[in-house]
Amino acid sequence: MIRFIPFLILFAVIENASCLGSFLYMHIYNSGFHRDVHYTLKFGGIGRMSCDFMLLQQFPSAVYVDTDQLTNLKKFKKINSYIPLYVDVEKPASKASPFSLYLFETVRKEVNITLPIHFRYHDPSERKFERIQIESPTLYVQCRGSSTKRLLKSMGTYRYPCPSSAQIYDYDKLNEAEYCDWQELEFSNVPTVISVLIPVGNSSSYRFVLPATLLVSWIGSMYLIYIIIKSGKRINKKLL
Q1: Average pLDDT over every residue of 79-85
Q2: I need a labelling partner for 115 at 20 to 30 A (CA). Which of 65, 68, 102, 143 fits?
Q3: Is 90 exceeded by the pLDDT of residue 60?
């Protein structure tokens, strides 16, 4: 029995090597309220496998994506994304809701995806900054051929939008996306959770900012009215 143990170990190593492995690296670039999330995915054990993958990214209410911006990026073949709803970019964080975003690509040795994101304004607070965390996405794979499906260490099968949903540009047709079976895969590494500090208005300045804003607005309005009346009189004199 002991002499068969090395063969069992070798068989396990070969089996793991032949399975599809995935590594995810997340980084965020730029500063302020408008930034880019960059995903780098590396796959091992691809061989002759023909697969598509999907990243399911959950965003908190403090984050939004500009659907019009993503539509332009999709037209230039820079991203394949789908959001099952229209994102209201004007809502503050307190009135917005979390949402899901789907990113599609073909499985290759290395895939790079850049997603532009934006942060919503927060209600005034005594804190100077608000910490926003973006969790790592979940990976799903869809392979063609029964032989390749056996090489997947799936954690379960789920129904999610097909890759063709990325070609929907009309907001009225977002609910017409087709759904496919996806196999959930676990990353071989532990992806990093992104943490960002966003500046927040100081609530203690409310008593000063509100009267000052009203005063400046009133002075500006009176000045505009004065200029309009003065210009009107000058134009009437020229006409007469």
Answers
A1: 94
A2: 143
A3: yes
Q: How many residues does the chain have?
A: 240
- CA 61 → CA 82, 88, 96, 125, distances in Å? 18, 11, 5, 17
DSSP symbol at 174: G
Contact 139, 187 (CB under 8 A): yes
Terminal Cα distance for the chain, rounded: 116
138's tokens: 């979940």
* Res. 44 pLDDT band, cuts 50 70 90: confident
Structure tokens at 60: 């908190």
Token look-up 């796959």 returns: 43
> Which residues, at least 6 apart from 83, have a Cβ–Cβ distance to it below 8 Å?
65, 67, 70, 99, 100, 101, 102, 174
Tokens of 30: 């730029």
Q: What is the pLDDT of residue 194?
A: 92
Angle ∠(125,130,132) on CA atoms, nearest 5:
150
Q: Which residues contact 88 (CB under 8 A, 6 or more apart)?
A: 64, 96
How many Cβ atoms sit within 10 Å of the Cβ of residue 152?
18
Least confidently predicted of 75-84, 91-100, 138-147: 138-147
Q: With residue 230 as reference, give the H or E element that holds it.
A: helix 206-239
Beta partners for residue 158, in sequence order? 182
Three-state DSSP class for residue 22: strand
Q: Quote the tokens at residue 93.
A: 């964080």
